[in-house]
Amino acid sequence: MYGVMSRGRNRLMLAAAALVAAFVAALAASNAQSQAATANKVIAFNVGAASDPFFVAMEVSADAEAKKLGYTVDWQGAPTEYSPATQIPIVDTQFAQKPAALIIAPTDPNALQAPVNQFIKAGIPVVNVDTHVTKLGSVLSFITGNNANGGQNAAKALAKAMHYTKGKTYQVAVGLTSATTTTNVARLAGFKQEIKQHYPGIKIVAVGYSQSQPTKADANVSNWLSSFPHLSGIFAIDGTNASGASAAIEAHNLVGKVALVGYDAYATNVALLKKGVFSALIAQNPTQEAKLAVDDVVKYLKHHSKGGIKHLVTLPNIVLTPKTSAAALTKYTYPAP
Amino acid sequence: MTQQGVDAPGPQGAAAVVEPAEGADGALERIRTLVRGQQFLLLIALVVLVVFFTIERSAFISQTEISNLLNDWSTVVLLAVGETFVIVSGGIDLSVGSTVTISGVVAAKVMGGMTGTSEPVILIVGLLVCIAIGLLVGAINVLLINVARLVPFVATLATLGAGAGFALVISGGAPVGADSQAIEFTTPKLWVFSWPVLAIIAIVVVSYLYLHYSRFGRFTFAIGSNRFAARAAGIAVKRQIAKIYMLSGLLAGITGMFYFLRLGSGAPTSGSGEELQAIAAVVIGGVSLLGGVGRLGGALIGAAILTVVTDGLVIINVNPNWNQVAVAGLIAAAAALQALRPGRGLTSSD
After folding, report:
1. B347 has a pLDDT exceeding 60
2. Which tens digit of pLDDT belongs to each residue from B147-204?
3. Which of A172, A189, A214, B253 is the least buried, fewest Cβ under 10 Å from its Cβ?
4. Residue A25: CB partners within 8 Å, gap ≥ 6?
5. Average pLDDT, chain A
6. Stretch(es) of chain A classified as CATH 3.40.50.2300
7. Is A268's Cβ below 8 Å from some Cβ in B?
8. pLDDT for B5 beyond 50
C-alpha cells in the first residue's frame, strides 16, 4: 500500500514540478522585456482586477506614454479579484524590485496605506489613480474619474431617452454587480440624487446584482420585463450589466421601447450604442487617467520637484449617445492590446 | 461510508422488503416509501414554489416568463447533466464553468473573423469550435486523472483556473463580438421554446436514456459504487472515466455556445461560478457525492428548482442579497433530505 501511495505521490510531484517549470518559463519569457530595462527607468503600476477592460485601457495608455518618455511599465494586478488581500502581496513584491516610481489604484484606502508608505519612506514617489489611500497628502498626485457625477449624468441621459415629462411616472430598474462594489455605490448615489432633485417622477422599482456574470444580468433584466410590463428604463451600472441588459433588450425586441443607459465604453458596447440598443453610454477616461499619472511621475523624476504637478485631477464621465460623432466614439472607446 | 450505508436497503430495496405485507400496513409502507423518494419530494417542492411565486405575481406563469425560465434552466442543465455522470462515477468536474467561458470566447473570436459568411454557417462553425474546446478540456482532465493520477478534484481545479486564465488572455478582459442575429436565435419560436432550448431538451432526453438504460450508464454506476469491484467485473475503468469526463467537457462546450447565443458575445466571466450552480443542482437532485447513487431526473428537477427560486425572487422583487441565502438553504435542505433517506447520507458522520 505504501509503495502505491509513494509512486502516486512521486507522479504527482513530477506533474506539479513540470507545471511549475512551465509556468516559470512562460513568466520569464513574458518578462524578458521588462528585465532588460534598468531598474531606475521602471514605473511600477498596480491595479485591482487587471483584466477589467477599464484597467486594460489604462495599461495600453500607460505603456504607450512611458515608452514615449523613455520608461517602461511593470504592470501588475490580480487577474479578476478586486481585493486588498490579493493586491498587497503584489505591491510588496514590486517594492522589493525598487522601481523608480509607483502608480497604484488601491483596492482599499486603509489597507493599502502601509504598503504605499514603504515606497514613500524609501524615497520612491507614488501616484494614485482611480481610487486613493487614506492619507491623500502622502502621494504625489491623485487622478480619478467622478463616478457620482457619472451616475448623475446617467439619470439625465435616461430621463431624456424616456422623454421625461413633469407629472408622469416612470418605472426604472438598476443592474449592479453587487451591493458593495465601490464604483457601483458611488454611481447609484449620484443617480438617486439627480432623480430626487430633478426627476421625481422616476421610481426605481427594482435593483439586481449580476455578480460579474453578464448572463445573470441578462436574466435579471428578462425577469424585470415580465414583472414590470410598464418598465420605461434601465440603468446598467457597469460594463458587465451593460452587456447582459443589452442582450435582454434585444432578445425581447424592445430596442427603442425600453430606454437603456449603460456604463463603460467597451468596443462591444459602443457597437451596440451605434445600433441604438443603448440610449446612452457613460464612458470613463482610463486612457487619460493613466497618461496623466505617467506624466506626473516622469516630471517628478526628472526635476525632483512637485512644481507643475496638480495634486488632484478629476476627469468627468462622458455621456456618449448614438448621435455622438464617430471621432468622439473612437476617442472614448476603451483601447485593448 | 458507514456500516449502515453498506447494509441498509435503498428506497427500492425497502419497497421490495415490504412487498409481501398486506392491508393497511402494506399501503402505509408503500406511501412512506413513495414519500421518502427524493424525486417525488423535489417535484412537490418545485410545484409548491411555482404556485407560491404565481400567487405573489401572476406574471410568473406568463408566456414571456416561462420562456425566460426555460432559457435560464438551459444555461445550467447541460452542465448538471455532465456533472451527474461524473459524480455518479465517484468523481467531480470543477472545470465546466471555465469550459463554458473559454469555449464561448474562442468561438466568438473565430466567428468574428468570418465576415461575409451567412449567419447559420457562422453559428455552426461556432458550435463546432465550442465542442472542440469542450472535448479538449475533457481530454486534459482525463490526462491529469488517468495518467498523472491526480484526484478529480485537484485535476479539474487546475483546468478550472487555467481555462479562466486563458479566457482572460484571449479576450483581454472584454466581451468578444456583438452579434445581434445570434441573440435572435434564443427568442421563442415554438410557443415558449426557442430552437436552442429544444435542442438542449433533446440532449437531456438522450442523456437520460444513456445514463439509466445503457451499458455505459450501468458501468458509470458500477465504477461509482465500487471501483475495484467494477474492475474485477471486467469494466475498463480508465476508458470509462475518460469517456465520462469527455462527455462532461462536450456538454460544457455546447453550453458555452448557448451562452454566446444569449449574449451575442463571448464574455470572459460568463461561466464563472457556474460549476457550483451545476453541482448544487445535482446535489439538490439527490445524487450522492459519494458516487454510485442518483437519478438524472433529480438533477433536472434540481436545476429547475434553482432556476425557479432565482428568477422567482427577482419577479416578486425580493432584495437580491436573499438570493444566495435561498440557494444555500435549498442545498442544505436537500442534503438533509438525503441523510434521512434509508441507507445513504451526506451528514458529517459519513
Report:
1. no
2. 999 999 999 999 999 999 999 999 988 999 888 899 999 999 999 999 999 999 999 9
3. A189
4. none
5. 89
6. 30-139+286-315, 147-283
7. yes
8. no
For residue A271, the distance in angstroms to the closest alpha carbon of chain B comes to 7
pLDDT at A37: 43
Q: Mean pLDDT of all residues in chain B? A: 88
Alpha carbon distance A99, A91 (integer Å): 11
Amino acid identity for residue A182 in this structure = T
- The alpha carbon of residue A1 is apart from the nearest alpha carbon of chain B, in Å, by 15
Instruction: Give the long-range contacts of residues B193-200, CB within 8 A, separation 24 or more.
Output: B193/B67, B193/B70, B194/B67, B194/B70, B194/B71, B196/B74, B196/B258, B196/B261, B197/B70, B197/B71, B197/B74, B200/B74, B200/B77, B200/B78, B200/B254, B200/B258
Percentage of residues of chain B with pLDDT beyond 70: 89
CATH of B42-340, one of 1.10.10, 1.10.3470, 1.20.58, 2.60.40: 1.10.3470
Q: Any bridge partners for residue A206, and if so which? A: A173
Q: Angle CA(A104)–CA(A107)–CA(A110) in degrees, nearest 5?
A: 95
Q: Which fold has domain A30-139+286-315?
A: Rossmann fold (3.40.50)
Sign of CA dihedral A61, A63, A67, A71: positive
- CA–CA dist B287, B42 (Å, integer): 12
Q: Assess A80–B contact: CB distance below 8 Å, yes or no.
A: yes
Residues 32-71 of B with CB under 8 A from A: 57, 59-60, 62, 64-65, 68, 71
Return the half-sphere exposure (C-beta side, CA atoms, 13 A cut-off) of residue B197.
22
A263 strand-pairing partners:
A282
For the purposes of burial, counting CB atoms within 10 Å of the CB of B199, is it exposed (0-12), middle (13-18) or buried (19 or more)? middle
Measured in angstroms, the CA of B173 and the nearest CA of chain A are apart by: 5
- Indicate the helix (H) or strand (E) that contains A182: helix A182-198
Residues of A in contact with B180 (CB under 8 A): 250, 272, 275, 277
- Which of A213, A221, A238, A275 to probe by mutation at the B interface, max B CB count within 10 Å? A213
Residue B263 CB-half CA count within 13 A = 36
Q: Decide which of 1.10.10.10, 3.40.50.11690, 3.40.30.10, 3.40.50.2300 is the CATH code for A147-283.
A: 3.40.50.2300
Q: Please give the Cα distance from B309 to B119 (Å, whole number).
A: 35
- Residue A245, CA atoms < 13 Å, CB-side half-sphere: 35
Residue with cell 450552480: B277
Rounded to whole angstroms, the Cα distance separating A118 from A91 reads: 10
B20 has a pLDDT exceeding 60: no
Residue numbers of B between 89 and 128 with CB closer than 8 Å to A: none
At B11 the pLDDT is 37
Cβ contacts of A32 within 8 Å, gap of 6 or more: none
Q: Do B314 and A336 touch (CB under 8 A)?
A: no
pLDDT of residue A336: 83
Residue A55 with chain B: CB contacts under 8 Å = 173
Q: What is the three-class DSSP state of A11?
A: helix
Say if CB A199 and CB A150 are below 8 A apart.
no
User: Does the beta carbon of B325 lie under 8 angstroms from any beta carbon of chain A?
Assistant: no
Band of pLDDT at residue B287, cut at 50, 70 and 90: very high
Helix H or strand E segment including A332: helix A326-332
Strand order in the sheet with A126-129: A72-76, A42-46, A101-104, A126-129, A141-145, A312-315
ipTM for the whole predicted complex goes beyond 0.85: no
Among candidates A8, A214, A247 on the partner chain, residue whose Cβ is nearest the Cβ of B183: A247
